[in-house]
Write a structure and sequence with these properties.
Length: 65
């Protein structure tokens, strides 16, 4: 069974607790309002990531995702 971690509204916040759950998942899906792309970079360095942008995400995030 595939374990998917679903996140949203991180608003530029990434910490060891979030990364602990990332490591336990097979895939991570971020449902928007990422903020700083350091969040998605940190997650993608560990696991496959799928993401959509939210209303707070800028043009750089929108073109990246």
């Amino acid at each position: 069974m595939t374990k998917i971690l679903l996140l949203s509204d991180t608003h530029s916040h990434i910490d060891d607790t979030i990364l602990k759950y990332v490591k336990q998942a097979d895939q991570v899906w971020h449902a928007g309002d990422i903020g700083d792309l350091k969040v998605t970079d940190a997650i993608a360095a560990l696991k496959p990531l799928r993401a959509v942008y939210g209303n707070i995400d800028d043009a750089k995030a929108r073109s990246y995702l």
